[in-house]
Queue: 2 jobs
Job 1
Amino acid sequence: MKVEIDQKSGFCFGVVNAVSKAEEALQSNDKLYCLGDIVHNGMEVSRLETLGLITIDHKKYFTLKDCKVLLRTHGEPPSTYEYARENNIELIDATCPVVLKLQQRVRRAHEDMQQQQGQVIIFGKKGHAEVKGLLGQTGNRAILVENEADLEQIDPQKPLVMFSQTTKPLDDFHRLSAKIQERAQAPTDIKDTICRQVANRVPRLKIFAAGHDVMIFVGGRKSSNAKLLFAVCQQANPNSYFISGKEELDTNWFTGHNSVGISGATSTPQWLMEEIAEIIRKI
Ligand code: SF4
């Protein structure tokens, strides 16, 4: 069986940076909390938890004081930083620089739009951590749109600036922004803020998935990016399977086939894909 790992898959630079910040901080004996899963990959979270990382939710965070907390790549709203300042919490900020820059742009756009009686629109997934961080820059006054039905919330008579969550599909962003522009009767400023670490993987992955008999996609079930990239695999290759760990492999998938491709999301660790490749080679 020929097994090949997609060389362009696995951690993006934002996740590499967050994981190495966590590993570095865990070398001291201090307790280290992480606000939310450090990556949307249960196996990597467990690995870091065995090194001492303690994953907490926001409810727990707002009870802490005098400790160290790591902020993951998705970013946080200003209220998280304010609470840390007031409660002697040392933050290890691993917010991805791409997300940090987007937060600043959203904040500035909100200030501008307030002066012009305009609107800030965020295209993103309701409840997603990055989206909460972006909405927080506008005091939760930006309009979140996920689909066409949500466009009813936008006032076509008022100017608007639109941004996107970094991990949304480019096609969806273009379709929705075109609808917004069609309906608008005031100036619109559409800003494509999708991270190319994700978007650029799509065309390459299509070719990679089509070039193998069977495609195994490794990702966390909570990862938006994993869902998006797996859908790309399915379109290019009907023999595509999504797994989160080696125990989900089914030997029947490989019967009568000679080549297997393995790919993963921006939150999938390389060691996990290698472990899975090794098992498939032995089938
Ligand atoms: S996908 Fe892009 S924005 Fe998100 S963490 Fe990776 S590099 Fe940063």
Note: The first helix runs from residue 13 to 26.
Job 2
Amino acid sequence: MAAQHADSVAAQVAAGLVKLSLALRHEAWKEARGGGLTPTQGQVLSWLLLQAPGQCPTPGELAKALALSPATVSEALRTLEAKGLVRRRQSGDDRRSFQLALTGAGSRVAQASAGWADFLAVAVDSLPPADQVALLRVLVRLIRTLQLQGKISVARMCVSCTYFRPFAHPDPERPHHCNYVDAAFGDGRLRLECPDYEPAPDGRQETAWEAWAGRWERAAET
Ligand code: SF4
């Protein structure tokens, strides 16, 4: 039974994803070491850089988004503060509640290291455009499955965003609509981490998901 499973398509795909994750980890280490940071510290800076202007998350929100323990986050923040890359400021009247923001230096370091995964983008760019879009669709579906299983943190993806209107237009190239920027777009422009994301209420998320993913599932069955 185990041998059968090891030969399955799912097992081969999983092995391929593990190989990719090892390459990513290796590059992340190289980049972080070059900047005198650990990969976790680099991750914190990159995530803070993705926040919408004026949005100052709490350490708890950061820990949840990156699936890190509060102790790991607090250690990373202590070091980043000491390096002058992140600042904490008290939020409201509660002395134990803080909001986080990048300093000017932190923003520069985060921007300089933002391209560390470009080697992967270059590899994906070598695929035919239709394959790139198909891969993005698969990633959206995998990420959502892992989110529902509690295996990865919440991603700020179009498919669960309150501004997402799937198949709102008859144009097959740009069938969806983003109410935030009031523009039509196609699957190739689906965002996996959008600073303007707002979660849709649960019922609406399900309806939008059914409309978006259901369409591709039905197409695959025919
Ligand atoms: S606001 Fe961002 S996440 Fe939401 S639908 Fe528009 S592009 Fe997608």
Note: The two ends are 31 Å apart (CA to CA).
